[in-house]
Design goal:
alpha+beta; Aminopeptidase; eight-stranded mixed beta sheet; 8 strands; 24% strand; globular; binds coenzyme A
Length: 218
């Protein structure tokens, strides 16, 4: 899969707004990305098509939480970074963004505020990649769990979260302003337990087997 993950930059905002408007209902109040991007309590990631010509000098990176046996996993061996791409490409002009995720770093939780993939690119693992990136941010920040709200009718999103071990943790009544729809709260088990780490390692290995090498920098 020719797709990579990196932090959102200011010049990505117009494309991210395009994806946001396509994904959410007209009544949705858009995220003030420019303000949020500068907050220490938020993290935004974008999935993009890398320019391979600029990536010749890539370094392998292993996230801080990966150690011991995790490094020997398929994921540990194949995970690569795109530091040099950023150095050689000062803006994202011409770079197509495929999706994004917004994360609040709130107490001991990573709270997904928005996640969306361009409509024509859905069903190809990009949403999954964004969830993997979110979990890696949570590990990197030493957080305990990842949580979010989803429309009770959003079966596709709930299936994605369920796959990554998010469990139903409650209902927020009339949560969505546009149609007063309820939200289901979905939260992972504590991510530092051996059981969750093992589940996440397996999911990442399966992802790589299915979609091939990816590049990620969170
Ligand atoms: C939810 C969303 C981000 C998923 O992104 P995606 O790139 O299409 O998802 P992926 O291809 O990575 O699929 C990952 C998993 O999601 C679930 N899924 C994806 N598409 C599905 C579909 N059409 N039907 C059922 N489950 C689906 C599956 O569990 C899938 O895993 P599998 O392939 O092993 O079955 C995307 O549909 C989207 O942008 N929707 C609009 C915005 C939105 O609803 N955001 C969520 C707000 S809570």
């Amino acid at each position: 899969m020719d797709i990579a993950l990196r932090r959102m930059r200011a010049e990505d905002i117009p494309q991210v707004i395009e994806i946001e408007q396509e994904a959410f209902s007209p009544g949705w109040v858009g995220t003030p990305f420019r303000r949020e991007l500068n907050s220490r309590y938020t993290r935004f990631l974008v999935a993009y098509h890398p320019d391979d010509a600029a990536g010749e000098d890539r370094d392998t990176i292993v996230a801080p939480h990966q150690s011991g046996s995790a490094d020997e996993s398929l994921w540990g061996r194949m995970l690569t970074g795109v530091r040099s791409v950023f150095g050689m490409r000062p803006d994202s002009e011409g770079e197509d963004l495929a999706g994004y995720v917004g994360i609040w770093l709130q107490g001991d939780q990573a709270h997904i505020t928005e996640i969306a993939v361009r409509e024509e690119l859905r069903g190809r693992g990009i949403g999954e990649l964004l969830i993997i990136g979110t979990l890696r941010v949570a590990y990197e920040q030493g957080l305990a769990e990842v949580t979010l709200e989803a429309r009770v009718s959003n079966f596709v999103a709930q299936r994605l979260y369920d796959k990554y071990g998010f469990n139903e943790a409650g209902i927020r009544k009339n949560y969505y302003a546009d149609n007063r729809e309820d939200a289901v709260i979905m939260t992972t088990d504590p991510i530092h337990t051996a059981a969750y780490r093992e589940k996440f390692a397996t999911l990442q290995d399966n992802f790589l087997t299915r979609y091939g090498e990816i590049r990620i920098q969170i």
